[in-house]
Amino acid sequence: MNMKELVEVIAKALVDHPDEVSVVERKEGRELILELHVAPSDMGKVIGKQGRIAKSIRAVVKAASTRDNSHVDVDIIG
Questions:
Q1: Which of 16, 24, 26, 67 has its CA 20 to 30 A from that of 37?
Q2: Are 46 and 14 in contact (CB under 8 A)?
Q3: Would the CA dihedral through 61, 62, 67, 71 be positive or negative?
Q4: Number of compact structural domains in the chain
């Protein structure tokens, strides 16, 4: 499973509208940026109280990306 699929699976499990979840990969130099797009009504579910869920998603992706010696960041877009 690649990073894009990982973020997509996690996000779809959290939201009320999984059909509106999409992840777009963007390269900036050596960094891979994953843009997570969700329905505006699902933003709170993906971010969580005080950003805890968003931090957790980023931590999982960071841990998974260290195996590949790559740097991956997740941007959440509503």
A1: 67
A2: yes
A3: positive
A4: 1
